Amino acid sequence: MSVKNILEKRRSVRHYDASYKISSEKLSSLVESASKAPNGNNIQATRYLIIDNPDLRNLILPIAFNQQQVIEASTLMVMLGDYQAFDKENIIEIHEEGFQAGYYDESLRDYLANAAINYYKHKSKEDLKLELTRDVSLASMSFILLANEAGFDTITMSGYDSKKLKDILHISDRYLDVMLIAVGKGTKAGHKTVRHDVNKIIYRNEIS
Ligand SMILES: Cc1cc2nc3c(=O)[nH]c(=O)nc-3n(C[C@H](O)[C@H](O)[C@H](O)COP(=O)(O)O)c2cc1C
Fold it and tell me: Does domain 3-83+137-190 have CATH number 3.40.109.10?
């Protein structure tokens, strides 16, 4: 199916076949492809925390407003951004890896690494949070498209208590939780949704 078709047909699905399992190989392959999404300076900050322990899912349920997809979907994933990805060591290591793979020469390696280090150096925690939100969101949408292409249904969720989720899962402040994604085989189609007419959302040169 084309990307256009997936986007036209995809709906957020809220009811899942709880007995359906997605293999870890399939999940890994979806994540591997999603990780090719564009990301700032290629620092690769997105982390995919898969929650497959039913006890944990049951603990998450009440802090996610009892949204049944939390326990019914085959996979529940917490999409995280890793603040440590901004560390100089990570940036240098990633650019060295590209150099060792023969993707660019030493001078481009150093140029790219230094540009990235300088770009993040003076950013506030709020700025870095926005950087992570951008990267994790692009990875999330890529994952959703891939999962739908593979025949699964999905829903993104921000309807949960972030602090309680981090407590339950012992997620430290090193990570920013951006959203949950549930994936599986839907038992009930997502309701149809409207979108603004395109002329209402496109502006040229100015917006007020
Ligand atoms: C960041 C984000 C968070 C969302 N959180 C929830 C949620 O907690 N519960 C829910 O039922 N739907 C949630 N949704 C789904 C939206 O309600 C849905 O995408 C929107 O109504 C459009 O419907 P569609 O995806 O079926 O086209 C979320 C979507 C996004 C992008």
Answer: yes
